[in-house]
Amino acid sequence: MVPAGDNYGLARVVVAVRAAVVLSIVVLVATGPEWVRRYPVALAVVLAAALGYAVVLMAHPRYEVRRTRFAWPVAVLDALFTLTLIGLTGGAASPVVAVLALAVIASAARLTFVECLILAVLLGTAYAGVVVWTTVDGVALEASTQGLWWALYMVFIAVLGGGLAVLIEREHRSRVDALVEAEAEHAAAQEERDLRARLLRSYEAQQEGLQVLLHEFRTPVASLDALVGALSDTATPMPVTDRDAAVELAGRHTRHLSEMLDALSDVNLSRQPAFSSGRVRRVDVAELTAEAAHAVGLAPPRLQMATTGDVSAVLVDAQGLRRVLTNLLENAARHGRDLPIEVVCERAGGDLRVAVLDSGPGVPPAALAT
């Protein structure tokens, strides 16, 4: 009856019922008993004005929209036309009295509850005055005519009541949608704040790591410089045993420097886009998983790890694996309903499998299909 995407759907229902009411009164005056048309000229003028009024509202349905500056003028005009037609068609005996109920119901689509009550009281008071001055005694419609008339007006009342029910449903749906949207915006803002905080902590950790590495570079470099000077001093050659010890010490310092350069390479890769590849090296997958879990705030007993096979020295892209594990563990921590999260590391031959299992709601089937 009321299209879902039409903002003026209910307004058009009310306007259509108003036009149908005016036309029904025209038919009643034309075919009813003589006492209904005691004032033919006045009736013609009022009915013509009422039809023109209905046409204007049909062309401008926004006048019927709920709680606007047009609400009271429209309600007052409805009441005036109704009371005038009651007075011209027999007062208390007039079938047009049924329109009073429609006028009150229609006003509920535009006014607040209190305003609608005020209108109903005023309309009832005015009706009492009209029937005192205009009622024709000893007249009534034929039973068949009266039956058809009230049957028709039951339909009008049902249409208006259904329209009001649709309006209430839409207002409720709009409030729910607004609440859901507000909650989604709040969640997005909170997630953005959390992301900024994590990025800041990551940056601070990298800066601290770089400072440690720079400090650690000084000792082996100074030692290598001294060893090179001693080994290249031809004036006082070193004994063979001391020379061998110096060469071994220089080798250890070189390996230490190489490991620190690898660490610096990992830090540099962590600042690259997510699709960049890291350096392949042997790592302890269980230890790497524990570090990724610590970065997102996961620790036992909520974090439960299980390993199958030897995962202590696996040749992988360490930085890339760390990024994947961090993302999976972060999602599990956020959506896992505070339940335990299990990480299973399995190595079979040259294959490595790492599974992050949580008790979250999962991905909807519709999203998986797309």
UniProtKB/TrEMBL annotation:
Chain ranges of the Histidine kinase domain: 212-370
Reaction it catalyzes: ATP + protein L-histidine = ADP + protein N-phospho-L-histidine
Presence of the UniProt keyword Transmembrane in the record: yes
Residues annotated as signal peptide: none
Main location per the UniProt record: membrane
Name of the protein in its database record: histidine kinase
Entry's localization field: Cell membrane
Taxonomy, superkingdom: Bacteria
GO CC term (a single one): plasma membrane
EC number: 2.7.13.3
Record keywords, A-Z: Kinase, Membrane, Transferase, Transmembrane, Transmembrane helix
Matches recorded under Pfam families: HATPase_c
Residues that span the membrane, as ranges: 12-32, 39-59, 79-105, 117-136, 148-168
Family matches, as InterPro entries: HATPase_C_sf, HATPase_dom, His_kinase_dom, HisK_dim/P_sf, Histidine_kinase_KdpD
Keyword Kinase: yes
PANTHER family: SENSOR PROTEIN KDPD (PTHR45569)
GO molecular function, one term: phosphorelay sensor kinase activity
